[in-house]
Amino acid sequence: MAGRDINREDALSRLDHKHACHILLYADSNAKLFGKIPIKHIVLMQMRFDGLLGFPGGLVKPSEESLEAGLSRELQEELGAAVPVTADDYVSSHLAQSPPRLILHFYSKKITEAELLEIERAAVSNAVDHGLEVLGLTRVPLYTLRNGGGLPWFLSHSFISNSRAQLLEALQRLGLVSPQTLKEAVKKADEMRH
Ligand code: GTP
Ligand code: MN
Ligand code: MN
Ligand code: MN
Ligand code: MN
Ligand code: MN
Known about the structure:
By secondary structure, the chain is of the alpha+beta class. The protein has 6 helices and 10 strands, in the order E-H-E-E-E-E-E-E-H-E-E-H-E-H-H-H. It has one domain: Nucleoside Triphosphate Pyrophosphohydrolase. The chain is globular, with a radius of gyration of 17 Å. It starts with a strand and ends with a helix. Guanosine-5'-triphosphate binds near residues 22, 54, 57, 133 and 166.
């Protein structure tokens, strides 16, 4: 997905643009798939109403609320839980290719496994958008199985806007997947998509 990154100051000076904020929430975990494959980290994404994968978050109104307050409001709607977000969690801003005049702000935040499990429960039992804007929360498989299962298949799905690039950048930057594993997973995923 084309478009380009811009800095936060430049982004916020564009009063004629729409602004949206989304966040990657993650936690460390000792859990093992099939009792043997360490999952290491839990990363949350969601299946959106349009059938595309994306991160929780949404449109904010910089004239009425800070980016972080707007993101927290969206998280309350979509996750049914209070997730305090601060400027420390800010990662980047992206000028979308389409639609025109949309700026996409991205955040990431580490939480505890217990907090993450509580968010997963609340997303079903408490979120007003559950079953509407949000069809379900999903975890991102970070491992690659011998047959290509795991991260490669996950990356072969369709993603909203530049959220796939946001995911890949964050997995690398946060050290959640080794550079070599990530590179191979992207290559396999691209073969699957063709
Ligand atoms: P409404 O309450 O119905 O307005 O939806 P929303 O406020 O939750 O907005 P949404 O989350 O759909 O985000 C607004 C726009 O941002 C979308 O139309 C997409 O173009 C884009 N978008 C949505 N999710 C993501 C994401 O995870 N990453 C990026 N980069 N863009 C996204
Ligand atoms: Mn089983
Ligand atoms: Mn949303
Ligand atoms: Mn929303
Ligand atoms: Mn909204
Ligand atoms: Mn809404």
